Amino acid sequence: MLIIRTDSTPEIGTGHIMRCIALAQAWQDRGGEVVFLSHCGSKLLRQRIQDEGFNLVSLKTPHPDSFDLEFTLAFLRNLKTSGQKEPIVVADGYHFDADYQKAIKENGYKLMVIDDYNHLPLYYADILLNQNINAPELNYSCSENTVQLLGCKYVMLRQEFLRNRNFKRTIPTKARNILVTMGGADIENITLKVLKAIYLLNDLDIEVKVIVGPSNPHLEEIKFYIEDKDLPASLIYSPLPEEMPEFMKWADLAITAGGSTCWELVFMGVPSLIITVAENQEGIGTGLEKFGAARNLGWFLRIKVNTLKEEIRKILYDGIREKMYLKSKKLIDGLGLERILYEVTQL
To answer: How many angstroms separate the CA atoms of 131 and 151, rounded?
Structure first.
């Protein structure tokens, strides 16, 4: 049994839960049972977990509130006393610090920690997973017995993406179809900054699809801007799971935050402009640009609307999009979950 401890709030975003859904799908396909222990503010996201057939136990307050660890350990003890198979705990969230991990381990449970940027002085885990391109360069401090799964060999993709592993893309001379996706929350409303840049392009020969996630607090403002400026854009709020790969197939270019969506875009071969919106995303953007699979625009606070407009204008006609596509096809093979679950079953 997998016990997945992960959360979603406007500050945390939706990416941790979404990639854990990928892990849970693969585990369930192998006949395993999954329970999400989660503080999740989005009703749509809670419904998504349950629609997948996973059990969801809601936590009222997350760590560092003491309730979290007390409740989680009590839940695990109850499983043991009820005769359930020994659970394996998966912790995905930057607030699950060394003390939290240590407590899980010291109470006798197997633990996999999912991380992005080596932000802790020490990790207590049986398996430490970082699926990002820069992960092999990070010098993690952990037990010599910890299995470290680092790099894009271990990218977790949901079933709706894996079904499209044979998709082949045609790169047009001009990128006309632009996908804007700034994460499930986008607290800083970078989506609006991108739309302002697109408006300044004054290009009527493009079409834009704007993905707005379930935790985004700026929905009405974005909707008003699109209508007020008569942008050639359609707004898609919290798309269905099977819709995202179709939007990515449609897109000639994506403008995206530097989170987990990058790996879906790379897998689907979408040339992308990446905007960093959080510290944990820095290595993703720089790593993908170095590899040649995307262009990294850096931190959102440093990007002026006019600069962003020029970056978009340049790449619309740039042959580098073909090179990005070819590079992206070499980076992710879609077998990451198989590799991860092999190690999990060895615990």
So the answer is: 5
Q: Which two tokens stand for residue 265?
A: 């875009």
- Do 257 and 293 fall within a single domain? yes
170 shares a domain with 54: no
274 phi and psi angles, rounded to 5 deg: -110, 130
Question: Domain check: are 130 and 186 in the same one?
Answer: no
Same domain membership, residue 58 and residue 17: yes
pLDDT tens, residue by residue, 113-166:
999 999 999 999 999 999 999 999 999 999 999 999 999 999 999 999 999 999
The two three-digit tokens of residue 337, written as one number: 């979950």
Domain with 105 in it: what CATH number? 3.40.50.2000
Per the structure, the complete domain to which residue 110 belongs is given by 2-157+334-345
Q: Is 343 helix (H, G, I), strand (E, B) or coil?
A: helix
Helices (H), 52-155: 66-81, 98-106
How distant, in Å, are the alpha carbons of 3, 119, 344 from that of 347? 14, 25, 6
Instruction: Give binding residues for substrate as ranges.
Output: 158, 264
Among 16, 39, 63, 218, the one annotated catalytic: 16
pLDDT in tens, 283-319: 999 999 999 999 999 999 999 999 999 999 999 999 9
Catalytic status, residue 16:
yes
Domain tally for the chain?
Answer: 2
Looking at the fold, whether 140 and 244 belong to one and the same domain comes out as no
Whether residue 10 is preceded by a cis peptide bond, meaning omega within 30 degrees of 0, is: no
Q: What are phi and psi of 23, to 5 degrees?
A: -60, -45
Match 């849970």 to its residue by tokens.
Answer: 24
Q: Is residue 318 helix, strand or coil?
A: coil
pTM of the model: 0.95
Does 284 lie in the same domain as 141? no
Please report, in range form, the residues annotated as the binding site.
Answer: 158, 264
Closest CA to 247 of 217, 209, 297: 209
Confirm if 92 and 111 have CB atoms less than 8 A apart: no
Residue type (1 letter), 95: H
